[in-house]
Amino acid sequence: MALRVPKAELPTELRENMIKQLGEVPEPVEVVWHSPKVATSNLEFSAKVGEWDAADASLKSFAHMAVAAQVGCSWCLDVGYFQAQNQDLDLAKASQVPRWRESEVFTPLERDVLEYAEAMTNTPLTVTDELYGSLLERLGPAAMVELTAFIAFVNMATRNNNANGVTSQGFSDACEIPLAARPEKSGVTATA
Fold this sequence. Notes:
Largest sheet: none
Helix content: 55-70%
Strand content: under 5%
Number of helices: 9
Order of helices and strands: HHHHHHHHH
């Protein structure tokens, strides 16, 4: 898939800061910069989301990658795996997120978070009272609210990237363990 809208020219300072932080400018920013208000709001909210600390970072990382795998956002998987490495998260586990149902590396809590991320991503949602209640009991209200808002934000970002034609930039090429491919039949309801 090719970008559906050309990249916009970013202000020099923003471009240089992103290159300093990530080694290159993320294509989603270049695409969305056609509307600087949208791009700025997205960057600001994304930064605020990154400051949330009630839920475990690895659980949020796995949830992000589960949403990206389900929606088919190769850019989000790419950068999610790269960020997992930079946050010193378990890369062996992170690499298995796209095939978490078949993998033996996840704890029961991690598996439930991955299931919850997919259930929130399904259209219509397939979140059950049992799954939500089980996570709430183990995570507590603050972490559960944060995890839910985080997954909702990731859904927006992944769908935005896909609709704009943004694909992987190769951020994860620097990671030691290759990202597992999502199985063709995962038992997940297809999304719109």
